[in-house]
Design a protein that fits this description.
Layout (H helix, E strand, L loop, with lengths): L1 H14 L2 H18 L10 H25 L5 H11 L14 H18 L6 H10 L4 H23 L4
Helix pairs in contact: 1-6, 2-3, 2-5, 2-7, 3-4, 3-7, 4-6
Length: 165
């Protein structure tokens, strides 16, 4: 039994490397940037635009906070707890029936990317104790975080210029 638990913990550790974390974070930023054109599609109801804009904004703010936290000097368990909290408010909106399927698919893509990323920080009770080693960022990881932060800042800029109906 102990060996099985140890094996599961080791798999979690290997699956949650800083490189994987930054790759998954980059996937979120890319998904948001691909979803941004929804805000200017002709024929999309104002309610859908407002809900979409709110969701993409909350995800982008969570990414911004996460980039800063991952680069911080906090311990791994503290980082893991904070990062999970940053995304807690990013809830995909319920869209009205008849919403353009492309809009729904793009939002699901963002939501799936967020869920995959947050799963790194929900590894159970043994995870927090092991998180320090997993969340130790190398220089390369920090450079990747910087690039992600810049791409995310571009998304935030676009969202701030988008005026809901």
């Amino acid at each position: 039994m102990r060996l099985a638990i140890l094996c599961v913990l080791l798999l979690l550790l290997m699956a949650c490397t800083p490189t994987q974390i930054t790759a998954d974070l980059n996937t979120i930023v890319t998904a948001v940037s691909l979803a941004l054109p929804i805000l200017s599609l002709a024929g999309v109801p104002p309610l859908v635009i407002t809900a979409t804009q709110g969701y993409l904004s909350s995800v982008s703010v969570a990414v911004e906070q996460t980039v800063a936290e991952l680069a911080s000097q906090d311990t791994g368990p503290v980082k893991a707890g904070k990062v999970a909290g940053f995304f807690a408010g990013a809830i995909i909106p319920n869209l009205p029936p008849g919403t353009n399927p492309m809009v729904e698919q793009l939002l699901r893509s963002v939501s799936t990317a967020v869920a995959g990323f947050v799963a790194h920080f929900a590894g159970g009770p043994g995870f927090a104790a092991q998180a320090t080693a997993q969340l130790a960022m190398t220089r390369g990881d920090k450079q990747q975080l910087d690039k992600i932060g810049k791409a995310n800042a571009h998304n935030i800029e676009i969202l701030s210029k988008s005026v809901g109906p």
